[in-house]
Design the sequence.
């Protein structure tokens, strides 16, 4: 297997989404963001763990068109936000009391303290201390994201190597990202991109996702030949795929500050 390079970036954005006044102050809903994306081809809406709603807008779309789109889909978004709260009540916390990484099978109590430079330290195997200068939700989220990205690089890179060796399918390099809609991807150049949110999933689900992406090295499509190859490495792929689709319920709100 040839030498690989691994991208260390987690894709954590430092910029807040563009905020637009879509409603009057009396009608405004907290946690609704509008983000203009040059990659977007159409208006879309996404509900995140914790109930935050994001409207993704292609460049050049005016506020009236966004208002009409939100009006058509607002009831759906509010229903999904309530469902998220019922499925995972802990996910609404942006200053979490606990953090659990399913891939590692570990759970920590979270304490908070003051520090000029943000950091997350682990004084013992069961405790995380989040150090920030102000203790705001945004500062806490960015500190935890840095910690999560380091944990993901440490775990996902060797795990992908092991699955590649198991399947006999090589890849060129690995990138870590914090994507809102995709768990992973494989480029024609052999780059495997993995979402740091995989750290919240069960090990068998993450292994399936890695098999899924590695098989794209043989078939850059979802043909019958592709799925037969996936099934040869993971006969339970259909159940695991369904679990992966539901996997966002395990992702806490602080991952998308």
Sequence:
């Amino acid at each position: 297997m040839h030498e690989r390079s691994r991208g260390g970036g987690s894709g954590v954005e430092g910029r807040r989404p563009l905020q637009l006044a879509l409603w009057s102050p009396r009608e405004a809903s907290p946690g609704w963001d509008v983000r203009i994306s040059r990659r977007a081809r159409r208006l879309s809406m996404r509900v995140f763990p914790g109930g935050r709603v994001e409207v993704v807008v292609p460049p050049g779309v005016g506020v009236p068109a966004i208002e009409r789109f939100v009006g058509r889909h607002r009831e759906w978004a509010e229903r999904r936000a309530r469902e998220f709260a019922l499925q995972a009540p802990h996910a609404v916390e942006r200053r979490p009391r606990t953090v659990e990484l399913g891939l590692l099978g570990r759970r920590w109590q979270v304490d908070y303290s003051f520090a000029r430079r943000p950091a997350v330290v682990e004084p013992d195997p069961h405790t995380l201390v989040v150090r920030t200068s102000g203790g705001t939700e945004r500062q806490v989220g960015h500190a935890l994201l840095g910690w999560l990205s380091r944990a993901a690089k440490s775990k996902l890179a060797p795990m992908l190597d092991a699955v590649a060796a198991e399947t006999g399918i090589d890849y060129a390099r690995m990138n870590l990202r914090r994507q809102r809609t995709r768990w992973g991807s494989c480029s024609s150049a052999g780059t495997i991109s993995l979402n740091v949110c995989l750290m919240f999933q069960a090990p068998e689900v993450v292994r399936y996702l890695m098999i899924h992406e590695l098989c794209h090295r043989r078939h850059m499509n979802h043909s019958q030949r592709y799925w037969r190859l996936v099934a040869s490495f993971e006969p339970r792929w259909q159940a695991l795929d369904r679990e992966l689709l539901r996997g966002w319920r395990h992702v806490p709100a602080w991952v998308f500050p």
User: Anything to note?
Assistant: Helices lie at 63-87, 137-167, 203-215, 224-233, 237-245. The longest strand covers residues 106-114. The two ends are 38 Å apart (CA to CA). Residues 32-91 form one domain.
